[in-house]
Fold this protein.
Amino acid sequence: MQRRVRIASSVGLHARPAALLAKAAAAQAATVTIAKVVDGVAGEPVDAGSMLGLMSLGAQHGEEVELSGSDEAALDDLVALLEQDLDKAPA
């Protein structure tokens, strides 16, 4: 299964957002990968549970990424996370 989503975090998948996403992905029972989408084509995927892997994508605010994995609920949870500005402190 795959889901595409635009990065909502104002700084993209940089330090804090990458750490939060990696922690959430690592907590999932199934492995989830993520790839940056350029011109409608997903690039080389990395483990979504790896902060360094996430940062290596260079995904910026408003860019699209594709999440892949076998657990639909896990993908939905991670998409919902990416649709938030993860760089803002919780209210």
Notes: The helical segments are 15-26, 51-56, 72-82. The chain has three helices and five strands. The longest helix spans residues 15-26.
